[in-house]
């Protein structure tokens, strides 16, 4: 069954010129780009996206980071898209992510970790509605 997931290429990925390299990994795996847009977000969008984290101590620096510059939001589609994207992305902490994953190959940070991928089909549905309400 074909599923969709939301992916964010965070401001560090854009700043470092890694958008093409990261996108090519998703495409090489067989995922299809359904929608994609570069944009800069404000705190209100960040708060909606990260609603479950807003009250946590680590969130204010994350909000500052994700609103610090342009990012690329995209919707990917494919068989088990949520799980595949999470496997390609690697562990949240880039310092602990396995080599061969996006974070393992390109990130040495827990917070500035290049990418976000929905963690479940339910989260993907909620997040896609925030970023691409027309889908």
Description:
By secondary structure, the chain is of the alpha+beta class. It has one domain: Nucleoside diphosphate kinase-like domain (Alpha-Beta Plaits, 2-Layer Sandwich). It is 41% helix and 21% strand. The protein has a four-stranded antiparallel beta sheet with strand order 2-3-1-4. The longest helix is centred in the first third of the chain and has 11 residues, at 19-29. The radius of gyration is 14 Å and the shape is globular. It starts with a strand and ends with a helix. The model has no long low-confidence stretch (mean pLDDT 96).
How is this fold's topology laid out?
Layout: E1 2-9, H1 11-15, H2 19-29, E2 32-39, H3 43-49, H4 59-66, E3 71-79, H5 81-89, H6 102-106, E4 115-117, H7 121-131
Antiparallel strand pairs: 1-3, 1-4, 2-3
The largest pleated sheet is described as: 4 strands, antiparallel
CATH topology: Alpha-Beta Plaits
Derived structural class: alpha+beta
CATH superfamily: Nucleoside diphosphate kinase-like domain
Let me know the average pLDDT.
Answer: 96
Order of helices and strands: EHHEHHEHHEH
Rg, alpha carbons: 14 Å
Spatial strand sequence of the major β-sheet: 2-3-1-4
Measured distance between first and last alpha carbons: 18 Å
Tally the helices: what do you get?
7
Uncertain stretches of 5 or more adjacent residues: none
Using the alpha-carbon principal axes, give the shape: globular
Q: How many structural domains can be distinguished in the coordinates? A: 1
- Helicity range of the residues? 40-55%
Oligomer: single chain
């Amino acid at each position: 069954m074909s599923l969709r997931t939301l992916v964010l290429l965070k401001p560090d990925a854009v700043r470092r010129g890694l958008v093409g390299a990261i996108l090519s990994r998703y495409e090489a795996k067989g995922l299809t780009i359904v929608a994609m847009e570069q944009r800069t977000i404000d705190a209100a969008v960040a708060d909606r996206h990260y609603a479950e984290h807003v009250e946590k101590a680590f969130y204010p620096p994350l909000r500052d980071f994700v609103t610090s510059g342009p990012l690329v939001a995209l919707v990917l589609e494919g068989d088990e898209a949520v799980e595949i994207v999470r496997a390609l992305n690697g562990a949240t902490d880039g310092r602990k992510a396995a080599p061969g994953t996006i974070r393992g190959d390109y990130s040495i940070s827990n917070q500035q970790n290049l990418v976000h991928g929905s963690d479940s089909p339910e989260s993907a549905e909620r997040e896609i509605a925030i970023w691409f309400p027309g889908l």
